[in-house]
UniProtKB/TrEMBL annotation:
UniProt-listed InterPro entries: 3-ktacl-CoA_syn, ACP_syn_III_C, FAE1_typ3_polyketide_synth, Thiolase-like
GO biological process, one term: fatty acid biosynthetic process
Family, per entry: Belongs to the thiolase-like superfamily. Chalcone/stilbene synthases family.
The protein, known as: 3-ketoacyl-CoA synthase
Organism this protein belongs to: Crotalaria pallida
Reactions the enzyme catalyzes: a very-long-chain acyl-CoA + malonyl-CoA + H(+) = a very-long-chain 3-oxoacyl-CoA + CO2 + CoA
Length: 460
């Protein structure tokens, strides 16, 4: 009896805390809606006042107004001409909108599927890793958040592995042409309609270039531009995303998303940032990529700089006023207040975060105070496809579409990292609801199996 009495106040206390938290959330939500729609409310009030005033006009008042306009016709024409001029200037000088017609993410063949245990065996067969290196790989793999159905290039699946230039070229062709073919099929666009080709790959730099391989394979016309980006990181991994962009406003009904903002932070001027991810030749003559111990700190600093610039463009006025008030209280009045972390869920509906690793996702979730639901596309992409680097953003968006989460006017925030060090943000607005039953992407055939529980540690 006494134990029951002791537990009862504790339960009441927890219920009270939950109720208080819910009340604060409702207050914050109400404040957000009030500030966000303040201008609309103000304009509505002005319209009501003007309409009320107009309804009080008598026939004589309307007759007098007509005579005034008729005898001052020159001024009326000048005002109308000035308004037309302003409209013309606005439409001519405004930035051209960029739209995403559609995208495709490459799904490798089942023969390339590789369990974690199989990966460790293949690493030992390569012959370049000692026992200490293999043990380190195993520890990383056990805590990586990677599942048992990710992919490895065919050249590495063979016994013994055969990582040659010819095999690398074959892999590049498979992932590029596979994604491009699917994109052409989805959009019904023909190769001759393409005006610009951009190919991004971090480390593989053959001659002829990857962009030239695409041009040759699809026999693209001569009057187009091609760009081959190398060493920009991160675009490693056995994955590929293919995106079709357009600036043709008159085809808007065909498009999926509109690009609202894009911002790139480049920290290459800082020596520590520049050298945190580098490609080097080891004493054995083998090429490899080195990651410094400062990587997470550098990535965090780049993300903060990026958010500091992007925030004012995307956050609702309610969050900006709260942030400004906190800053004034802290700097001007020396108040001891906790630094305010803006609620980015008020600005974005979906988040696609670079899956460089589980630690990266954990830190971003913690710093941006995101829920598991918001992080689900990123974590499931890491689990199912592994670290597909830059293309992971498109696997995540494909996961979100396959789940039927994308509705008209939803906003998507894509965050990517790269060597140098760089942090990129892209904000997309959905122009229509995406029906998963009409979509074709890597998740459609197996989306009912996700999400899954990913343990923090899984022994191999």
């Amino acid at each position: 009896m006494s134990e029951s009495n002791a537990i009862s106040p504790l339960i009441k206390s927890k219920l009270s805390d939950i109720k208080q938290s819910l009340k604060l959330n409702y207050v914050k939500l109400g404040y957000h809606y009030l500030i966000t729609h303040a201008m609309l409310l103000f304009l509505s009030l002005i319209v009501v006042i003007i309409a009320t005033h107009i309804f009080t006009f008598s026939l004589q008042d309307l007759h007098d107004l007509w005579h005034y306009l008729r005898y001052n016709l020159v001024y009326v024409v000048i005002c109308l001409a000035f308004l037309v001029f302003l409209l013309i200037v606005y439409f001519v000088t405004r930035a051209q909108s960029i739209y995403l017609v559609d995208f495709a993410s490459y799904k490798p063949k089942d023969v390339c599927k590789c369990t974690r245990q199989r990966f460790m065996e293949l690493s030992s067969f390569i012959g370049t890793f000692n026992e200490q290196s293999l043990e380190f790989q195993r520890k990383i793999m056990e805590r990586s958040g990677i599942g048992e159905s990710t992919y490895v290039p065919e050249a590495l699946m063979r016994i013994p592995p055969n990582p040659s230039l010819a095999e690398a070229r074959k892999e590049a062709e498979a992932v590029m042409f596979g994604a491009i073919d699917e994109l052409f099929e989805k959009t019904k666009v023909k190769p001759k309609d393409i005006g610009i080709v951009i190919v991004n790959c971090s480390l593989f730099n053959p001659a002829s270039s990857l962009a030239s391989m695409v041009v040759n394979h699809y026999k693209l016309p001569k009057n187009f531009l091609s760009f081959n980006l190398i060493g920009m990181g991160c675009s490693a991994g056995n994955g590929r995303g293919c995106i079709l962009l357009s600036s043709r406003r008159w085809d808007r009904r065909r498009f999926k998303y509109q690009l609202l903002h894009i911002f790139r932070t480049n920290k290459a001027a800082n020596d520590k940032c520049f050298s945190c991810v580098t490609q080097n030749a080891y004493s054995t003559g083998m090429l490899g990529v080195s990651l410094s111990k400062d990587l997470m700190a550098v990535a965090g600093d780049a993300l903060k700089t990026n958010i500091r610039t992007l925030g004012p463009l995307v956050l609702p006025m309610s969050e900006q006023l709260l942030f400004f008030g906190t800053l004034v209280g802290k700097k001007l009045f020396k108040m001891k207040v906790k630094p305010l972390i803006p609620d980015f869920t008020l600005a974005f509906n979906h988040f696609c975060i670079h899956v460089g690793g589980r630690v990266v996702l954990d830190e971003i979730q913690k710093n941006l105070q995101l829920t598991y639901w918001h992080m689900e596309p990123s974590r499931m992409t890491l689990y199912r496809f592994g670290n597909t680097s830059s293309s992971s953003l498109w696997y995540e968006l494909a996961y979100t579409e396959a789940n039927g989460r994308i509705k008209k006017s939803h906003r998507v925030w894509q965050i990517a990292f790269g060597s140098g060090f760089k942090c990129n943000s892209a904000v997309w607005k959905a122009l229509r609801k995406v029906n998963p039953e009409k979509e074709k992407n890597p998740w459609i055939d197996e989306i009912d199996q996700f999400p899954v529980d990913v343990p923090e540690f899984s022994a191999i």
